[in-house]
Amino acid sequence: MKVLVANIGSTSLKWRLFDFTNDGERLVHKGGFERVTDYTKAIEDCVTQLRDAGAIQSERDLAAVAFKTVIAKGVTGCVRLDAEVLAAMEAYNGLAPAHNPPYITGIRSFRERVPGVPLIGLFETAFYQYAPEAMMRYGVPDAWHDIGVRRWGFHGASHKYIAERSAQLLGRDDVAQRAQNLYRDGGATTVQGGSFRVISCHLGGSSSITGILNGVAIGNSLGMSPQSGLPHNNRVGDLDAEALPYAVKTLGLTLEEAQRQLSKEGGLKGLSGGVSNDVRDLQEAAQKGNPKARLAIDVLVSEARRWIGNYLVQLNGVDALVFTAGIGENRPEIRAGICAQLDQLGIELDSQINAATRATEAVISSDRSRVKVLVIPTNEELVVAREARRLLGAST
């Protein structure tokens, strides 16, 4: 069984092909294109590369094409991408304007190119469908909640991978199994040992923090849209509800221009005064004495600590604090800043191991630390492929 995972951006197509033959799982091909203007051609070129590499003989070798879809009205989980689901995605284009429209275009193009192959989406909101309601509600009237004004949470594939892998690395196979079965049994898999509490920090161009209890998410720092939570590369993160109408009136902006600024000129870019939206550039500028670059880094660290503190309380402690994604895996200075002066909470880094760890699995906490602090490179595509395979297995 071969599952092609397609990651579609506004101007990009990237893919990974997984082979699940004989109950194994193996990455057999990966590639991608940037500056895509014609998805039909890009998909044709993708299939050609797969054939030329010997990964497939034809598209008939594909059991499914799977996508890391973001959000849809009234739809979550791992589902077949039929016309009804695409319409539900279109209904929430405004909540994910950088994600939903290109995914919808790409999915329709794949349908035309490989008409006999199942198309499957694992929604980023899926990992939070079992979270306590009190963790997912806003204080809004019922009518607002009924139209979808609530916390949804995102980066679900990444945090689910961390839920599984952290449990495996720390000897909790029972919890790993529960996380693996989550979308099939809703968390009914029994946990044999005591509670296993994880705080997963996905820090990258887009960032979020999730609390996980026994393999199941209890909440995520991202809310109704990817515009919330921690400051992102260009996106603002959390913002008071009155800020938008106030800025529109005071600065004489249209609503559309205000939204554009918050999504294109906010976050790390806005905090740094336009220096950069890339933490690497910001760290370099901060070392040279740029105060706004330093401020951007400090705000990111502060917001990460705020959300970690939130889940420390909700979970009544933590067994594992995990860093993942581009910043989390590769920037030891950011990890050190987030973990600074948390020894009274049982969190203490080994400074040498932390400094030496980049993009590899490692325990970076000291021997004195009661909490295991880990770096785990995420693998969202593998999670999408696994869930697509499980969905196909359940429907046969």
Overview of this protein structure:
There is one protein chain. The chain has 396 residues and is of the alpha/beta class. It has 2 domains: 2-123, ATPase, nucleotide binding domain (Nucleotidyltransferase, domain 5, 2-Layer Sandwich), CATH 3.30.420.40; 171-375, 2-Layer Sandwich (Nucleotidyltransferase, domain 5). The chain contains 17 helices and 12 strands. It has helices spanning 39-52, 83-91, 100-113, 133-136, 142-146, 156-169, 173-180, 182-185, 243-251, 255-264, 267-271, 279-287, 291-315, 325-330, 332-339, 351-356, 380-395; strands at 2-9, 12-19, 26-33, 62-67, 78-80, 119-122, 197-202, 208-213, 216-220, 320-324, 362-363, 372-375. It has a 6-stranded mixed beta sheet, sandwiched between helices. The protein has a 6-stranded mixed beta sheet with strand order 9-8-7-10-12-11, with helices on both faces. Strand 7 (197-202) and strand 8 (208-213) form a beta hairpin. It is globular. The model has no long low-confidence stretch (mean pLDDT 95).
Note the main attributes of this structure.
6-stranded mixed sheet, 16% strand, Nucleotidyltransferase, domain 5, 396 residues, alpha/beta, 12 strands, 42% helix, 2 domains
Strand content: 15-25%
Query: What is the chains' assembly state?
Result: single chain
Globally, the shape reads globular
CATH class of the largest domain: Alpha Beta
CATH superfamily of the largest domain: ATPase, nucleotide binding domain
Mean pLDDT: 95
Number of helices: 17
Count of the domains: 2
Give the biggest sheet: 6 strands, mixed
**For the CA atoms, what is the radius of gyration?**
21 Å
Structural class: alpha/beta
